[in-house]
């Protein structure tokens, strides 16, 4: 698993640092409040149930920088057995990635709609590359932001700013 995480991190750094920065589009004060590093507090669905295949206390980080780049990783809270050998078997690799989310790319903020769109340039799931994810956002007490996927409005991801 460490080798997979190291590979993902390396790809993120290479792609993000090789992209031209250009205009960020983060003109308004609300959009500027999104910028930062946030740790996952909770994922709830259907008014209180934990999200499926994530466990009771998943962990994660989401980062939005001033130039319009973002990255997110969410790791499920469940026992993930170590690989038996140096390289995982197909079943071990599948189990290690079950419930794990990781992608990166550019993002844009629509202050009127209170949405942030993740424009995915890379993902642990190859089928997600090039796709956009739109999240409603709201700021909550305790220096938190709540993201609600438009494609699943019963799911709420709460993130707390890392100081």
What is the mean pLDDT?
85
Query: What is the tally of beta strands?
Result: 9
Note the overall shape: globular
Strand order of the largest sheet: 1-3-4-5-6-7-8-9
| Unreliable segments of 5+ consecutive residues | 10-24
Strand content: 35-45%
Distance between the termini: 28 Å
Alpha-beta classification = alpha+beta
What key phrases describe this protein's structure?
about 160 residues; alpha+beta; 8-stranded antiparallel barrel; 3 helices; globular
Question: Topology of this structure?
Answer:
Elements: H1 2-18, H2 29-34, E1 36-45, E2 49-50, E3 59-64, E4 69-75, H3 90-97, E5 101-110, E6 115-123, E7 132-140, E8 144-149, E9 155-161
Antiparallel strand pairs: 1-2, 1-3, 1-9, 3-4, 4-5, 5-6, 6-7, 7-8, 8-9
Structure report:
With 163 residues, the chain is of the alpha+beta class. Helices cover 19% and strands 40% of the residues. It contains three helices and nine strands, in the order ααββββαβββββ. Strands 1-3-4-5-6-7-8-9 form an eight-stranded antiparallel β-barrel. The protein is globular and about 50 Å long. About 9% of the residues have low confidence.
Summarize the structure.
Helix content is 19%, strand content 40%. Residues 10-24 have low confidence and may be disordered. It contains three helices and nine strands.
């Amino acid at each position: 698993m460490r080798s997979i995480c190291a590979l993902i991190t390396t790809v993120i750094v290479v792609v993000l640092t090789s992209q031209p920065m250009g205009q960020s589009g983060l003109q308004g004060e609300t959009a500027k409040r999104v910028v930062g590093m946030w740790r996952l507090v909770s994922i709830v669905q259907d008014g209180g149930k934990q999200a499926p295949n994530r466990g009771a206390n998943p962990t994660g980080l989401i980062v939005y920088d001033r130039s319009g780049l973002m990255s997110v990783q969410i790791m499920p809270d469940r026992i993930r057995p170590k690989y038996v050998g140096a390289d995982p078997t197909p079943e071990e690799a599948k189990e290690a990635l079950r419930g794990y989310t990781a992608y990166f790319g550019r993002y844009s903020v629509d202050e009127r709609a209170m949405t942030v769109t993740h424009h995915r340039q890379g993902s642990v799931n190859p089928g997600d590359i090039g796709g956009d994810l739109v999240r409603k956002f709201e700021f909550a007490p305790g220096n938190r932001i709540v993201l609600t996927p438009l494609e699943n409005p019963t799911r709420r991801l709460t993130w707390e700013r890392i100081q």
